[in-house]
Specification:
Largest sheet: 3 strands, antiparallel
Order of helices and strands: HHHHHEEEHHH
Number of strands: 3
Helix content: 40-55%
Shape: globular
Distance between the termini: 40 Å
Oligomer: single chain
Structural class: mainly alpha
Number of helices: 8
Radius of gyration: 20 Å
Length: about 200
């Protein structure tokens, strides 16, 4: 637990890993592969309450409508934020790595980086407007200009884009008069929360 914590992982992520490790260990015990030495005794594997990640419709409207005409970088970040929301809470990592080939027959069909699950969603006009506004280079396989040097340390480019987006979102929230903390996670949780209410 301490080692995972030192790597910057949060309690719920650590608990998730430890619960799965404990399940594998119990299977090994039940099949007689190891003796049960109770290595998980006293190690917390519960779920801690997390801070609110969703915002309400009023706050979403404030972010969507705040005037960022003179702030190109902030405007781009806000559009990626709204794109995530319009795409049913598409995670930022999946937006970054969306490929041109993921657009087919008026739909976006992509595989989630985290789970490998195939997601198919309709190309809503609001989605198309944002995508058309930010074309990537002609020779790039990626749909949006977030990976600017394809094939060259793309993971670092993604992490830099993530940091940049989260830094900008704090400024956008301040300009929009939104008191809630917002990040690239917010559109996903907000979409789920609003969809549930409706």
């Amino acid at each position: 637990h301490g080692w995972l914590s030192s790597k910057g992982l949060m309690d719920n992520t650590i608990s998730f890993y430890l619960r799965h490790l404990r399940a594998v260990y119990r299977m090994m015990v039940s099949e007689g592969l190891v003796k049960d030495n109770k290595p998980f005794a006293g190690i917390p594997t519960g779920i801690a309450r997390t801070r609110k990640r969703a915002i309400n419709e009023v706050e979403l409207t404030l972010i969507k409508s705040v005037d960022l005409a003179n702030a190109k970088g902030l405007s781009f970040t806000r559009d990626m934020f709204m794109l995530s929301f319009y795409c049913m809470g598409m995670p930022f990592v999946d937006i970054v790595f969306l490929k041109k080939t993921d657009l087919t027959g008026g739909r976006i069909i992509y595989q989630r980086k985290k789970t490998g699950q195939t997601i198919s969603l309709k190309m809503h006009p609001k989605i198309k407007t944002i995508i058309d506004w930010y074309p990537s280079d002609e020779d790039s396989p990626y749909l949006l200009p977030l990976i600017t040097k394809p094939g060259i340390d793309e993971r670092t480019q993604y992490e830099n884009a993530l940091r940049y987006a989260n830094k900008n979102l704090k400024k956008i929230a301040e300009l929009a008069g939104v008191k809630s903390n917002i990040s690239t996670y917010t559109p996903r949780h907000t979409w789920a929360s609003i969809a549930k209410l409706k």
